Amino acid sequence: TSINKGVFPENIYIVDLDWMFSDENAPEPIANLKKVCRLVHLLSELAIGVDRETNRAFFNLFFALPQDGVKPPRTFLIATKVTPEMAEVRLNHLDLLEQILHPKNSSKPNLLERVMMFRLSIADVLDAAGDCGNPFMVVVKEWSKILSQYRINLQSYVHGFSFEKVRQEVARAELEYAKSLSEILGDIAGKLLALPVSVAGIILVYKSNDPLEVWVLSVGLVVVSFILLSTIKNQKLQVKRLQHSFTMAFEGFESRMNTYPRRIQELLAETAAQLDVQVKSLNNT
What we know:
It contains nine helices and five strands; from the N terminus they run ββαβββαααααααα. β1 (13-14) and β2 form a beta hairpin. The model has no long low-confidence stretch (mean pLDDT 83). It is 63% helix and 7% strand. α3 packs across α5 and α6 (163-191) packs antiparallel against α8. The strands form two sheets. A three-stranded antiparallel β-sheet has the order 3-4-5, covered by helices on one side. It has helices at residues 28-46, 95-101, 111-129, 135-141, 143-158, 163-191, 194-207, 211-255, 262-284, and strands spanning 13-14, 19-20, 49-51, 60-65, 74-79. The radius of gyration is 33 Å and the shape is rod-shaped. The protein is mainly alpha-helical.
């Protein structure tokens, strides 16, 4: 059970592999198991909580994800039970986590943020895996994916952007802008209800024989037309102002477009195209 606690046993000889602990060159299954033991040791230092008492044969490691939108906080339990299948998995780049946790690097800036990002990367992968039955096996098999997620989170932190935050900000900006355009269209639709009145007024002017009545109706129609044209002009100016604010809001995203994943790049392009179509439709209206 020492393997489950991150300690590879000594003074052993494995008959099937004809391998002894003192041999310099270990066969691949042994080399893989040694890396799994190293991973157990590193995860026990990285986890936000370690339960060593519930079961003396292995550790229970706790990782968590904070609340995200409608999703409540989630906690993940990793029982460090090493299985034979793990001897077939080749773990690479464990040095990255070891450097982060090494005491000599404790004084380096932003070390706590790096530790938290690594914890979140593991929790993200476990969350995406769902109810897999063996979280530790997921961590071992998806180690390269965890490293990739960590690098993405680190790059996001360095650039001052989180990809998830960018996605939320883009969605929020799109929603607010579309809502504002819809409100303008609603205002215009309300004003356009005056058009039938104007048409009816023209008919009354045409049929009227009283000069005073014709004069009053004509002045009224001119006033209504002037107010309607002024309102439409004001709404067009408001649309331009909204379009300008939208351009300014998205300039920050577009200037960093190359640093975003392909999905966010597509999202930004799609958002800009859809809102441009809505502006054209509103102008035509």
